Please model this.
Amino acid sequence: MNNKPRIALLIGIICISIFPILVRLNLTPGLISAFYRMAIALGLLLPYVIITKKLVLPNNKLLLTAVVCGILFASDVAVWNIAIQKSSATQATLLTNLAPVWVGILSYLFLKNKPARNFWIGTLVALLGMVTLVGFKFFINLNFDLAFSLAILSGILYAIYILVSKNVLSEVDVYSFMTITLFSSTLFLGIVSVITGEPFYGFSNHGWLVLFIQGAVCQLAAWLLISYATQNMRATRVSLSLLSQAVIATFLAWLFLHEQITLQMIIGGIILLLGIRITFYKN
Model:
């Protein structure tokens, strides 16, 4: 079996795991942070695809669908950024990472290829691991407020994006898909930022550095790799595998932000990764 998609997915997940830590620094507003994440990634990718002639525009139907993918992803990132800053990274990340459940439900309702039994088993085990990782006391203090709703919405948008992008990537190459989606994401978020009066400048040097890392690593590198994996793997497996970013983000928070890792968190992480592994069994 070709392991390249799996390796690409793993590296991509590591890249996006940096993102919650950068957002938690609160060096820039959530919405404008999402705009620059897309704009910087587009600025880095566009010259490359033009010079190498890798940009191939698909037919009108696929082009429109790719544009919609960009708007979906932009909306997801913007809503998630705001949810993180209005509540906590833990709550926002947990609720957004319900995306595999939405992917499974939407796949079952609307797609011919229904999720296999091992997907549902793996999802339940992975979610149990996620709950263990963040701590059961967390749910006692869960606030069903605007931030809660935004995080849930982010997960639903995430799920729709994964399913729609899977369909487009079956006929469009990764570089063209990424260029189109980044362009529509940047344009959409730019318009929304202007309407809402977001500041486009005046950030500290550290703020600009964080924005660049978000665009170059968390967006461009990560989603080139994840899009390649999506192109060659089941959407349900990709969506569930993305849950592992919670484990990696926890480790990075311990490494860089000196946050404590408890035995309960370690056990939760192991259960979560076991759930993801279950979905890769054929029987």
